[in-house]
Amino acid sequence: MATTATPAATTATAVQLPLGQADLADCIEWQSVECLNENGNHTFVNALKQGYREDNGLHLESDADEQLLLFIPFNQVVKLHSLIIRGPPEEGPRTLKLFANRPNMGFR
């Protein structure tokens, strides 16, 4: 998820979007977002919501193991072109899998 927000603090980093692309944060159906295995102190809000995701001190973290399942429903049809994932290489994801239109996922 990219952002055009300007940094609010010295720890913030803004990402410039290419021409013709838009931040999809306004298209997210926030009350239906789910994250399985998230740490209660480091929730999906830190990674997705404008104002939080720009703060390098906030992050999304699993409370159990290295796996997270993040369900992000949109309130309209969107064309997802790219994702921006920030974090230290030694702590960031090694594997990322995207699934479209699969609302009832779980760990098996």
TrEMBL record:
Pfam families membership: PITH (PF06201)
Entry GO terms, CC: cytoplasm
TM spans (from-to): none
Superkingdom, taxonomy of origin: Eukaryota
Residue ranges occupied by any PITH domain in the UniProt entry: 13-108
Family as reported in the entry's similarity comment: Belongs to the PITHD1 family.
Protein name as catalogued: PITH domain-containing protein
Lineage, opening ranks: Eukaryota, Viridiplantae, Streptophyta, Embryophyta, Bryophyta
